[in-house]
Amino acid sequence: MSLSEMLNIGLMQGFAGLSLFSVLLLMGLGLAIIFGQMGVINMAHGEFMTIGAYTIYLFSHLAESYAPKFVAVYFPVAIVAAFGFAFAAGWAVEWLFIRHLYRRPLDTLLATWGLSLGMQQIFRSAFGAKEVSPTLPDWLMGSWAPSAGLDIPINGLFVMALTLVVTGGVLLALYRSRWGLRVRATVANRVMANATGINTRQTDRLTFAIGCGIAGVAGAAFTTIGSTGPTSGSLYIVDAFLVVTFGGAASLLGTVVSAFGIAQTQSIAEFFITGSMAKVLTLSLIVLILMLRPQGLFAAKVRR
Amino acid sequence: MSHDLPDSIQRRRLLQGAAALPLAGLPALALAQAFPTAKVNTTKLAVTDTEVTVGQLHSGTGTMAISETGSIQAEQLAIDQINAMGGVLGRKIKVIKEDGASDWPTFAEKSKKLLVNDRVACVFGCWTSASRKAVLPIFEKENGMLYYPTFYEGLEQSKNVIYTGQEATQQILWGLDWAAKEKKAKTYFLVGSDYIWPRTSMKIGRKHIEGHLPGSKVVGEEYYPLGHTNFNSLINKIKVAKPDCIFVAVVGGSNVAFYKQLKAAGVTADKQFLLTISVTEDEVLGIGGENMAGFYASMKYFQSLDNANNKAFVSAFRAKYGPTSVIGDVTQAGYLGPWLWKAAVEKAGSFDVDRIAAASAGIELKTAPEGYVKVHDNHHLWSKTRIGMAQADGQFKVVAESPGLIEPNPFPKGYQ
């Protein structure tokens, strides 16, 4: 193994870590908004991601069947549509279920769990039980080789870019927009927010829907990595909650840092020991740290 | 039908025609009468004078659905064809379908239901070795008969199972011999999903590589849980090890992530030789032909096999399930199940499991889509092994075929 080869492997492994980081961050961001800001435990979060993934599949299928010229460009359009469909679904769900259950966290957990089962069956009935894959446009496939022996997966770069855009967008919206102001006010002091004329019910609905929309974008991004089936959501939900809880529920910065920590630990460990053992190591570290600091890495000040 | 006859005469003719219809069932009825239920069913199975009930136990949902749906369809096609020919011993076959849901305890529970509650005459089912291991004790205790269609790791033999897929020595040993001879492979990196079949298969593979192939060695061995989707670190490890051959036993939905990420990392067939024992046409449908193109698979059946039996089978399958259907190795082995069962019942003259278990050995099927198979005393099938190269359209091109039928040897000496 020459030095340049080792360097290449090191870079590729580092990229793998960053790639996993962006995947985890994308998964956790939507949940961080819903769980972190609103305190709603949404067990159906994975299914909103699956909505996004199936939207990509649908657009890919339509593009292939009816407009073959669009196969190269349908992807960005489909991502926006994924956000739209998940947003709409989130809006509907909040209006139907969640708004009745805000002060009852255990009931939201049960209700959203039931919702996730129902959504899985809807996917199964609509798309079949078999896993499906969209036809990805050519510019998204394969690798970019800046130098011989260094292969950077293009879809990894795409997911990272998407994560950057989405995270930047969320931070901007939360701290620079009127919506963000309303959300932060509602989270800080709901009664006072109501008193100052903020429609907290409307804000909650919008926040939930935006969180679900981001989940839809995450699901859309994941179609570049793996296949989509009715139960794909359950693969992601645990990691999403892990990222959010580890980072500290009410802090978006916490979500970013925890996603980075978990991704790098997992990815570096995986390189030296087996995949299953690396997962054991990562989870054990998380458990240990949470035992010492149950509120997560970055928590709002709590009185001990 | 003439329109100028008065209605009463038309009605009379219609009734006369309808009265003759039961006569069409006469041949089947005669056959059933030659095999009275009391004689052919002495163990209280679900057999009547006109009907025999069988069970079907596959994963219609979950991570294995991508692979098992084909078996469900093929078994149903065989049963429909047998029913069209008059059924078995004059009795039509009725199927009770159960969903194992890719969960092994569910398989065990449903098999118990089929054998104890429904008293089915036999079960066509299972795909993963884990599901088969979960149901085996129940089949042996309740004396049922399972027709198991998947290629598996061997090291098993049961009076209550007919294995219509290949066992490890038939699939793996000949495949590795071909890799060493034709592709001059000397170093191997073994990758698999983390459960009994890939681990046992790789154990057999490793013994063969290190013990029987001169100058060959294993440079890496990794396993990932079923359903795992992040293979980037593994792919980097493979790049470090630079093997002549990546030998793959990744199962189910994980295949999609694995091959997509291989392609994204620049590991393509023109630079790397890859041989898999777990990808059939069904999986390629999910993976995408362009991600698999140029890689090799070792199976006993490919949809592109050029013989008369297979052409008839493929067109019957497509007529029933759509012109774009694909048929993989396990799907074809699933298709063999009902035919082998019918042959065993007719040879034994009975539906009793003990009798058909004894009668199965020696049964030949000349109409098998893979060509010709024969049941061995150990309840496995003599069959050929082929190497197929994946094409971008999702099919495989057969590039090599074993010269003769390979004898099934589920307990090979020196490999345990």
Characterize the structure shown.
The complex is a heterodimer of chains A (304) and B (416). Chain A is an all-alpha fold and 304 residues long. Chain A has a two-stranded antiparallel sheet with strand order 1-2. In chain A, helix 2 packs antiparallel against helix 3. The longest helix of chain A is centred in the N-terminal third of the chain and has 36 residues. Chain A starts with a helix and ends in a 12-residue tail after the last helix. The mean pLDDT of chain A is 87. Chain B is α/β, with parallel strands linked by helices. Chain B is built from 15 helices and 15 strands. In chain B, helix 8 links the parallel strand 6 and strand 7. The longest helix of chain B is centred in the first third of the chain and has 20 residues. The interface between A and B is large, with 40 and 38 residues.
* Spatial shape of chain B: globular
Q: Give average pLDDT of chain B, whole number.
A: 89
Please tally the β strands of chain B and state the result.
15
Terminus-to-terminus distance of chain B? 72 Å
Distance between the termini of chain A: 53 Å
Helix content of chain A: over 70%
What proportion strand of chain A?
under 5%
Main sheet properties of chain A: 2 strands, antiparallel
Largest sheet of chain B: 7 strands, mixed
